[in-house]
Amino acid sequence: MRVVDAFRQAYGGEPAGVWHAPGRVNLIGEHTDYNDGFVLPFAVPWGVTAAVSPRDDHTVRIASLQAPGEEQVLADLDRAAGWARYPTGVVAIMRGAGLPVRGADIVIDGDVPKGAGLSSSAALEVSVGLALDDLYGLGLEPMELARLCQKAENEFVGMPCGIMDQAASALSKEGHALFLDCRSLAGRAVPFDLSAYGLQILIINTGVHHELADGQYARRRQDCENAAKRLGVPSLRDVTDLAAALSRLSGDERARTQHVVTENHRVEAVIGLLRAKAVPEIGALLNASHLSLRDQYEVSCPELDVAVEAAVKGGARGARMTGGGFGGSAIALVADDRVDRVRATVEHAYAERGWAAPTFLPATPAPGAHRVR
Ligand code: GAF
């Protein structure tokens, strides 16, 4: 294993173990997690593999095969820079929670496609978090691990994300999507084997990331909190009469509320269709989700919109942006015998606009975080 070879080279010994945590796509339920709502992500076959040994002192040494020459030796975790803030943030948050976590020697190797918005940061956090859980005998439940990793991203990295990505990475089951109630944190594995229907989820990686994304995410959260406050409910999850709620709101707060409330219903509708084995029918809900994210939530971008429109034009049953938005990937529900046509239609639409070609990846639901050796 190349991560083990790299560990030997960096630190001159065998790692105590190797752990893997996946990235994710979200089938549906976007920008609902921090509104106490529903999400339905699944783990992808790409992620982060971490070779780790515990240390007797409190120092963290960390290197990445994706960042050669950027090894960091951290007696003080606050000095972590760039990519290293995600895993070292987990160490810091675990210690802050009173868990008996000392130092670690860490080498990581990731294969989540770059710029795809498939949550490589959660994979980074969860792989190292699971390693520490095992090595220091913390006995964490997967959801506890996910919450500590989310806290690391919120408080150490400063990204106010919800729980979806870390939960998907920590809890997913192979061949299943994870139906998660982000209020109770109850998760249920929902069988999601599309091959039985001659269908697949095709990831369309736009390869773009619009930088304004960072502040925009926090602004969307704020819009939702403001709307909930105005409506006198704990969160937008609690809106039961959408028409009445909308009549009391205006502008951005109104639009965000319309998205969140309807998106929660779309997740439940997808769950119902999966249960009824009416899988092709979820396509229409993916399309509706995209329009709502584009028009009401305003987190799409031209590259995502064109990918979605062209995929549907090429014969996809439905398509939508997935993840936070402003770039990253779209997903399309496509019959196996239509994949080539969908790809060609999207490629053509991009070429016509003079954009760099997107990349395509079939997404099969992979296992969640686990020890590899
Ligand atoms: C990002 C966040 F990290 C998630 O918590 C979630 O809010 C998502 O955007 C939007 O659904 O991936």
TrEMBL record:
* PROSITE patterns, sorted: GALACTOKINASE, GHMP_KINASES_ATP
Query: Annotated pathway, please?
Result: Carbohydrate metabolism; galactose metabolism
Q: Where is the GHMP kinase C-terminal domain?
A: 273-350
Q: Which InterPro entries match?
A: Galactokinase, Galactokinase_bac, Galactokinase_CS, GalKase_N, GHMP_kinase_C_dom, GHMP_kinase_C_sf, GHMP_kinase_N_dom, GHMP_knse_ATP-bd_CS
Highest taxon of source: Bacteria
Binding-site list for ATP? 64, 115-121
Task: Give binding positions for Mg(2+).
Answer: 121, 153
Q: What does this protein do?
A: Catalyzes the transfer of the gamma-phosphate of ATP to D-galactose to form alpha-D-galactose-1-phosphate (Gal-1-P).
- Its family? Belongs to the GHMP kinase family. GalK subfamily.
Instruction: Specify the protein name.
Output: Galactokinase
* Organism (species): Microbispora maris
Task: Point out the gene that encodes the protein.
Answer: galK
